[in-house]
Please model this.
Amino acid sequence: MADKNLPTEPYKGVRDFYPDDMAVQRYMFDVWSQTAESFGYARYDASVLEPAELYKAKGAENEELVNEQTYTFTDRGDRQVTLRPEMTPTVARMIAAKRKELAFPVRWYSIPNLFRYERAQRGRLREHWQLNCDIFGTDERAADVEIIALAYQTFLNFGADPSMFEIRINDAAGMQTTFSDANFFDLSAEQSRRLRKLTDQRRKLKVEDFEVGAADIFGADTHKTNLFIKSLDCPDPASYLAWISQNAQNPVENPLEYTGYINASEILDGLRTLGITNVVFDPSIVRGFDYYTGVVFEFFDTDPANRRALLGGGRYDNLTELFGGEPIPGIGFGWGDVTLRDFLETHNLLTADITAPTIMVAPTDPSLNIAGQKIAQEIRASGLSVAVDISNRKIGKKITAASDAFVEYVLVLGEDEIASGTYSVKNLTTGEQLSGTLEELCEQLV
Ligand code: HAM
Model:
């Protein structure tokens, strides 16, 4: 006997998937993969183990993720190994490895299990599954529009109405330029880094705290501080640039082109052409990864119960450079199962059925259990799902248990049925009864 019983809870921040959870998860993964495939995306996968250097390399670096959130260990061969916290470096590695064989543009998707040492809270766990859809080998705006339209369509395929979520778009390069360029906010590299971090936390901070943080970064320049705070409400890239350059000594001639914000502008137009109207420009969208080089986006639930981003992504044109050769442009997004389930539950969209066999064979006596298995085997051959109730319960209890487990039909098996070769199945919802040989029954039920 052990001194102390082991706890039955899983490790902190991870989940057990009981059959009811698996049914929901399978439904979510099915909608994810069917939608990705309907857009022509091919599925790939890789191991959860990656060399730690993949996340430490320059360009792939995200300080918080690498230093505080990875599960990294030394293996028996003295190698540093990381449980992958995201899929993008892995897929960039795979694309770079086959760059000569692939016919670009490549459209790929995957549903990996990811691990991050985060403080567990609503929408954030230490383990999650994440739909990743990416296009490689093109920097056409049509690819950016397509990837956002794919995520949008997936929401509709879950039964969501566009009023239930909102798409927010910004541009990583544009943000960098407007923060540091002398014609706009003219910040040092360090101020710029701090302002990005503060902007990223905007949603979690009280308005006053955010404003105090901004004033601290801009120092004595209260005018710029106010300009910055108000700029976050500008409805499109053109008015944002006009607003923040109003006091420039020599305003740049074509600010949309100059900053690269032309891309976000064209993408917003492209999405509206596809009938996607729940999309807004939001200069406060900062993605946590340094590899984004162009448009960045996040989807949010319009219900305040779920405040965290449902999904996020963007364009990253240089990541494959880490592996040598000319960079291959990429754009994609990651969408977690935790935030998706919260969204579906909040909006009553979870219609996944609990998986139960269609028929339960219920022997009237345990001595008939093997005969029951034989009958189940024969019915299964016609494509129906069948299980046998091999418990010692009375027949009435077996029927109630089958009904409680959402089984559709029950076949009561006694000596008489075996002797005559004629069986009856009862529909547990309607009470309707069908009788005949196994063959006849299967024909009617399939
Ligand atoms: P990310 O913003 O870190 O991006 O994660 C994307 C989504 O994954 C989040 O919006 C959320 O739904 C989910 N997620 C992230 N961390 C957790 C967590 N600890 N618990 C539960 N869900 C979580 C990326 O990972 C990028 N690599 C996405 C990408 C793909 N960019 C281009 N291609």
